[in-house]
């Protein structure tokens, strides 16, 4: 029997800029080129919580402070993205002058972000594989998840506004394979890859979201177009497209 | 309720967002734009306005509208210095001694300042207290189909000084030249406002204020947006480089839960937004979509949205 799991495929158009901090502690100087999974979870967490009137963003659990997005991460087996268009990192040097209580302060800084802006139409497609068992235990339904997907407003900081252009739902087929072709980001671990793409170290969302100072990291391969992957693979087929899952 | 607005505006000879001053040359903010030429990609740089710049302008309008409705605004925000209770020094002006419980810190800040309620804050001490902004704003970027016509050109200016006889150069008129890079483009940006976030705790989800005050604050937040767009008071250097042009189109969507209009940098943004809203209707959600193109002026579309929100009891 082929195991099946619900999926959400969310196609988004950026408004041109995607500002993703590589380190949440630092507002400046570092940026990610591609959207990490933690951002995808955060992006859907906000509209999902909106449906139930939950406005909480931060959970104070004794000494640790976490994002509320942490509470929904178990709803997902896996999340990944496909990026059409080539993001460029760009950050102008800024000289800041300001007077504060009569004193002139000056500083030079830069604020890098990924620019997704060009003659072609850039799109970002996120896929969320839903953990049906966890979903049935909680307050949300599959329909809520679908509405939440339509309600994704931004990826990363508040300037990174996106509009959701299409949401597809269905059942994904999970299987094992020795090779696959994919356009979606996958964990770069023991696989042989043929094709172009970018490696990016991201926080492993499965180990928790919110406190990143000691979070586990994984290296993800973000394909440019489609790549061929060989190895002992676990794959998922979602609406005619293939994802490579974590081993 | 959630409001999302797509705005297109024409700006000729503007200096709305300047960065990278080098000597006597001040440069316009620019972003890369990839174009294909003979099968090869090349990069051209087009003028842009940052979301931070637009957000700052919106919050300045929010200060005025809030004060006009008799709502509280803290001393820092009143001066348009949006430190947002970032540390003990700034927070102490609102509550002294500072409470230990993050919930009490949030309550104190939200009660004493509409700008920090709507625009969010980050108190970066122990314990850290964070409140996301209830409004979101994108960069303003040239509309894609005509972006290659967008320009940024330096304009030469001179400042004169009369030198008197005691100066070394004698009795001659001196001048200092400087350059201001001006941009010209048809821009588009997106603005979202989550009205349900206003006056409600980002820690406990409980209302911090009574319902009447929450409604008045929502009204202030909407009026500030109306004022910002209607007066074209956003961006820098307006005193000498007030852009020639104006708002050409707006598309406003009001939904029950978050929803973002397709960015007006795409030519098909109105049709696409309409189709996407139909899907929400299929999911059982009511909405309003008001568009101002051609005949209708932006104020009329914004007023339609305000009237709808009032009917729905949002304020
Ligand atoms: Zn304030």
UniProtKB/TrEMBL annotation, chain B:
The record, for PANTHER family, names:
CRISPR-ASSOCIATED PROTEIN CAS7_CST2_DEVR (PTHR37459:SF1), PTHR37459
Q: Indicate whether Nucleotide-binding appears among the record's keywords.
A: no
Positions the record marks as coiled coil are none
Purpose of the protein: CRISPR (clustered regularly interspaced short palindromic repeat) is an adaptive immune system that provides protection against mobile genetic elements (viruses, transposable elements and conjugative plasmids). CRISPR clusters contain spacers, sequences complementary to antecedent mobile elements, and target invading nucleic acids. CRISPR clusters are transcribed and processed into CRISPR RNA (crRNA).
Q: Name one Pfam family in it.
A: DevR
Q: Which InterPro entries match?
A: Cas7/Cst2/DevR_sub_I-a/Apern, CRISPR-assoc_Cas7/Cst2/DevR, CRISPR-Cas7/Cst2/DevR
Please provide the record's keywords in A-Z order. Answer: Antiviral defense
Q: Please tell me the species this chain comes from.
A: Thermococcus eurythermalis
Protein name listed in UniProt:
CRISPR-associated protein DevR
**Entry's Gene Ontology BP terms:** defense response to virus
